[in-house]
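Suppose you are handed a protein chain with no further information: no name, no annotation, nothing but its sequence. What can you learn? This example shows the usual starting point.
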Amino acid sequence: MSDTRELVIIGGGLVGMTLALAAAKQGIASHVVDMADPAALTADGFDGRASAISTASWNLFTNIGLADRLAPQGCPIASIAVTDGMKPGRIDFQPEPHEGSLGVMFSNRVLREAMFEAARDEKLIAWHAPARVVDRQRGPHGVSVTLADGQVLKGRLMVAAEGRRSPTRDEAGLKLAHWDYKHRAIIVGLDHEKSHDNVAWEIFYPAGPFALLPMLDGPEGQHRSALVWTVSEKDAAGVLALPERAFCAEIESRMNGMFGKVTLNSQRSSYPLSFQHTVRMTGERLVLVGDAAHGIHPIAGQGLNLGLRDVGTLVEVLTDGMRIGLDPGDAQLLKRYERWRGLDTFSVSLACDSITRLFGVPGRIPSAIRRLGMAGVQRISPLKQFFMNEARGVSGKLPELLKN
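A reasonable first move is to predict its three-dimensional structure. Written in structure tokens, the prediction is:
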């Protein structure tokens, strides 16, 4: 007997698995297929990546039952400091006490562990991993994927959640606007002498932003942060090859020694930076979520949060439609999802791209103009509040799952 489910989600990463869990809470069953071995993804030292979970995204995790598993392992972001090369004129984003934090920092490994644990307990999720899709079929009456072992999974709607290089998106012919920044993000975990005081730092240099993100203290009380350091592609190999002492000295110099002596607590890794945004987010019985639809610069830490807004929106659209008897793959529902998400994802993507280019202009005069503008934002409360609401993900029309 065929196990036909409402969703066939291709990609079981942070966005794809959150979608499966959120859908299950609404009674929507899914197949989740991922090429990676879950054990490898949660192994110690798999990667040093961390994610800033916005207020709205934390509401989503709360509403689907992940918050209790995650809360003890997250570091709240009390404020965000934005500066042009550590020069005077910075912006300090600090919410009012009743607004809570600006977000919570988690290692991606912690997020994966919580999601995978929840998925194993959920009967409405059929998890196939590691597994490779060798054939995809979409038609008027349903969808199916064939795995390398010959197993055929059937559903009503196919969801591409495979990330930036989504073969499902490419096979469907959904076109991308794309450009390469010719920069690379270097990722590493840091231990440092002085406390970060739960402040996230975004330090802009002409070569690219230098972000210090607060993490929980280590098991022996070590103060810890996650570093995302953007360098030119031509310089990346040299920076990555620096001996650890020289690498740490470069880090200390770029933060003006404000955290004291720095050491590394993870391996260095890196990935190229680019912009991409699909012209359309849907096709026949197909929908794109997360980086498969929009890949942005990590400058504001909004990439994963954009994907989680996709999740909340898609689940709400499907639930509303199925409540009145519509098929999950109904073109009306997919059109509603695309209208709802298209403008938000494009606006955030364009804003991140514009900020990257603005702060990338070298020279004393451009720096002075930027710092003058930042000083203005610091003094104008409504403008600061607007930017904080954007960072917290609470602006615009939110799906119910992302509300408190």
